[in-house]
Amino acid sequence: MKVLIVGTGYVGLVTGACFSEMGIDVRCVDVNKQKIEDLNNGIMPIYERGLEELVIRNHAAGRLGFSTDIDASVKIADIIFSAVGTPPDEDGSADLSYVLDVARTIGRNISKYTLVVTKSTVPVGTAEKVRRAIQEELDKRGAKVTFDVASNPEFLKEGNAIEDFMKPDRIVVGVGSEKAKKIMERLYKPFMINNYRIIFTDVPSAEMIKYAANAMLATRISFINDIANLCEIVGADVNMVRKGIGTDNRIGSKFLYPGCGYGGSCFPKDVKALIKTAQQNGYKMKVLQAVESVNERQKSIVFDKISRHFDGNLKGKKIAVWGLAFKPETDDMREAPAVVVIDLLLKAGCSVVAYDPIAMPEAKRRMGDAITYCKDKYQALEGADAMLLMTEWKEFRILNFQEMKSKMNQCVIVDGRNIYDKEEMKDNGFVYHAIGIN
User: Fold this and answer.
1) What's the CATH number for 299-433?
2) Phi/psi of residue 217, each to 5°?
3) Residue 415 in contact with residue 435, Cβ under 8 Å?
């Protein structure tokens, strides 16, 4: 069984590496020549815990290859996974141009039965568009080649993607034929040895499952952030509220942690795309519109708190930012709340110094010399008038209070992820602001 992964972004590279780890012959292709050259030399385009070792080991064993020649790769593949990007258009809908380009390339090159699997997050109906694009190219060639199109959405958490792929809580596969179903069963059998967690659906349902899952998680985050903001107004403690509702087994405690909003490559994009899909079909997703609105407002809450602390006079203040990635264990800064806050700080006339364990090269690529980058968290505090905690990296959890106080100009902390204890911070001489806590 020869598997081709088209696109070596986050999803494609993780998928290819994990399949090869199970002994499957995998080739990954991409139009980016530099990226492919780097991968062939063991240089990763992204940071993901455990990925580098997996790629290097399986590449050395000959099970995982990288190429820019998509035409030749398509011709020898039995299963083709399309894992190219689906960035949001200006109106919020998913841009399917890359997905359909891949489909047309497949149609121009296949000569035997091939299973085409959409791995990218795509709106309902995309698989049918892919099928038509492939068939149109086959018709132009006058080629009578059979193929199937399936949907296999990913559910990978950045920072834990390898574990998620190798030990999935479920695998969702949308198929339209028994042949496609059997092929996908065989492909995923190595991952299902201990517990059979594969869910077969029709193709449109599989496409919708991915969006619905991310939309639900985003909804929980915006819900608890809205509750947190009200807690501050009425004098309640959101941490107590969170624990009180989380012990109800109908609700549960996951994704009920207040903070400065969600970011990343999935939640913002998928919520927008689902809202747009509904609009295109004459329906309004009122709940998700509110989810998106709450999250956009929440991203500036840390800035609002520090601005209020200084009575709106931030000009000339030196502000330290701990954490730049949208979440721990990744260097991904797409839609990161830290980016929003830093932009507001700079516009207010602040100087910004920052530290992140992993994401600083990505931050430099995005923001250049607009801010100062530090070698560790304490260096960032030298002469700072305040510290803003934006990403809950583990190394930020235990603090050396004396060292912090010796470096900071003013001992002011805004905890955008509620990882510190209010009383402990106050007892150690810090002015402490958090989310949903007075």
Assistant:
1) 3.40.50.720
2) -65, -40
3) yes
Positions of CATH 3.40.50.720 in the chain: 2-201, 211-297, 299-433
What CATH number belongs to 211-297? 3.40.50.720
**CB-based contacts of 283, cutoff 8 Å, min separation 6:** none
- Pair 327, 264: CB distance under 8 Å: yes
Predicted local confidence at residue 87, as pLDDT: 81
Question: Which residues are the active-site residues?
Answer: 266
- 375-411 pLDDT, tens digit per residue, is 999 999 999 999 999 999 999 999 999 999 999 999 9
Query: Which runs of consecutive H residues, i.e. helices, occur in 310-400?
Result: 337-347, 360-367
Q: Which residues contact 58 (CB under 8 A, 6 or more apart)?
A: 17, 20, 21, 26, 64
Using CA of residue 177, residue 178, residue 179, residue 183, what is the dihedral sign? positive
Cα–Cα distance, 24 to 16 (Å, whole number): 9
As a CATH number, domain 2-201 is 3.40.50.720
Residues of the chain with pLDDT under 70: 194-196
Distance CA 434, CA 237 (A): 10
